[in-house]
């Protein structure tokens, strides 16, 4: 199967905004989108999986922040329900020391 970028590779590395927009739209139909975005994380130019390398890095940072916030919410709830630090660390697959440090940073949760 031919991927959209194979028909006009120059468009995926163009500096023209309209080409970049078209390349991003064409990537939307490609089954390799996720794998391609992983590759683009290490690049400086081009469109990879529908995003520029800067957009890929920004999306990754956002995902990390969101995952950490979800974990913090889960930790707060478990502590409020009386779970021990060891039990929470086990459930999240974290070393106890890492969890204790994080609990110290979270408001009102002394480890
Ligand atoms: S996702 Fe990757 S392989 Fe697919 S069209 Fe876009 S640049 Fe090409």
Polypeptide structure, described:
This protein has seven helices and no strands. Helix 6 packs across helix 7. With 111 residues, it is an all-alpha fold. The termini are far apart. It has two domains: 48 residues, no CATH class; 44 residues. It binds iron/sulfur cluster. Iron/sulfur cluster binds next to helix 1, helix 3 and helix 4.
Short description:
The protein is mostly helical and 111 residues long. The protein folds into two domains: 4-51, no CATH class; 62-105.
SSE topology:
Elements: H1 4-7, H2 9-12, H3 17-27, H4 33-40, H5 53-80, H6 85-92, H7 96-105
Helix pairs in contact: 6-7
The structure holds iron/sulfur cluster (SF4).
Iron/sulfur cluster is lined by residues 3-5, 12, 26-27, 30, 32-33, 36, 47-49.
- Decide which structural class fits the backbone: mainly alpha
Number of domains: 2
Number of helices: 7
Characterize the overall form.
elongated
Total strands: 0
Percentage of residues assigned to helices: 55-70%
List all distinct small molecules, including ions and cofactors, that are bound in this structure.
iron/sulfur cluster
Distance between the termini: 55 Å
Q: State Rg.
A: 21 Å
